[in-house]
């Protein structure tokens, strides 16, 4: 295998499987209502306009609905504005690059308050000689319900360039992109918001967390198994962790494309400190090197 092909394989795994946290799908078998049980019906007024919230492209339009919306409420004491996590990415013994996940601000999307979460991945100078990577993804996560309203992915990988925007119309259970509109289950997550949702959950060893996820035009129900407790040492320090593992199932058949495990701190922060993915040509490891602005006890 040529060096450039190896680098391409590496960064495909890192940016998709680890950084974007695109977990393997399985059936969730659970339906939730997008409205709390408060005795009120939603009131809908159609509004077709240039989508300030759904900025799909110059002069594009999208029909959204103004709705009296009562989403679920998920208590969140795990993360907050100002959190910044920095990771070293290794391929075997080689330092391949760095990744950052941060929450720089609270903003508004579709008239809802959201966390703006930004994930960036960059190859280091050595790997950039063969295959330069400068990727960025942004997720806009509902503060109350911890689900996605919007997702952006801006990929700069060698000569390849792609910009993807996904609009999550949670009021009508739709995901809207330039290419199509997909019917989605309530509270569907993007590939980045799924991680932040799991961080808010009560992780009990031997149980699983189920969450619906959208990626590349399809809905992927996800299951995250809570495996065990384990103490790990990374450049940022020593942490007591809970180990979780995503499981894949597609159209009824298990498809294991590498094994991804994630170590989350065994406290209310559920901060990711270590991620490992076994692939055909070795293993990819992302280790926490620095953390700032995190929730404190």
Mean pLDDT: 79
Total count of strands: 16
Low-confidence stretches: 1-55, 250-256
- What would the principal axes of the Cα set say about the shape? globular
Secondary-structure-based class equals mainly beta
Major sheet description = 14 strands, antiparallel
Task: Quote the beta fraction.
Answer: over 45%
Helix content: 10-25%
The spatial strand order of the largest sheet comes to 10-9-8-7-6-5-4-3-16-15-14-13-12-11
Question: What's the helix-strand series?
Answer: HEEEEEHEEEEEHEEEEEE
Q: Number of helical segments? A: 3
- What is Rg? 19 Å
Q: How many domains make up the 3D coordinates?
A: 1
Distance between the termini: 49 Å
Q: What would you say this structure looks like, in words?
A:
- The protein has a 14-stranded antiparallel β-sheet with strand order 10-9-8-7-6-5-4-3-16-15-14-13-12-11. Strands 1-2 form a two-stranded antiparallel ribbon.
- A hairpin with a 5-residue loop joins strand 6 and strand 7.
- With 297 residues, it is mostly beta strands.
- It has 3 helices and 16 strands.
- The N terminus is likely disordered.
- It has one domain.
């Amino acid at each position: 295998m040529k060096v450039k092909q190896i680098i391409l394989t590496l960064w495909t795994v890192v940016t998709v499987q680890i950084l974007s946290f695109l977990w393997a799908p399985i059936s969730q078998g659970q339906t939730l209502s997008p409205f709390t049980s408060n005795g009120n019906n939603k009131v809908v007024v159609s509004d077709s306009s240039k989508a300030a919230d759904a900025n799909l492209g110059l002069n594009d339009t999208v029909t959204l609905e103004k709705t009296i919306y009562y989403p679920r409420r998920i208590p969140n004491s795990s993360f907050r504005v100002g959190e910044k996590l920095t990771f070293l990415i290794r391929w075997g013994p080689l330092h391949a690059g760095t990744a950052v996940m941060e929450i720089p601000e609270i903003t508004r999307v579709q008239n809802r308050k959201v966390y703006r979460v930004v994930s960036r991945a960059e190859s280091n100078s050595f790997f950039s000689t063969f295959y330069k990577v400068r990727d960025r993804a942004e997720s806009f996560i509902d503060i109350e319900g911890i689900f996605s309203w919007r997702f952006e992915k801006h990929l700069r990988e060698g000569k390849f360039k792609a910009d993807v925007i996904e609009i999550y119309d949670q009021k009508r259970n739709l995901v809207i992109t330039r290419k199509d509109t997909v019917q989605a289950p309530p509270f569907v997550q993007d590939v980045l918001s799924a991680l932040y949702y799991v961080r808010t959950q009560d992780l009990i060893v031997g149980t699983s967390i189920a969450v619906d996820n959208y990626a590349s035009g399809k809905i992927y129900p996800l299951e995250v198994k809570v495996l065990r407790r384990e103490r790990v040492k990374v450049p940022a320090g020593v942490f007591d962790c809970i180990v979780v593992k995503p499981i894949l199932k597609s159209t009824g058949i298990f498809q294991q494309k590498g094994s991804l495990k994630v170590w989350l701190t065994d406290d209310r922060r559920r901060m990711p400190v270590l991620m490992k993915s076994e692939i055909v040509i070795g293993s990819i490891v992302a280790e926490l090197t620095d953390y700032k602005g995190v929730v404190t006890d």
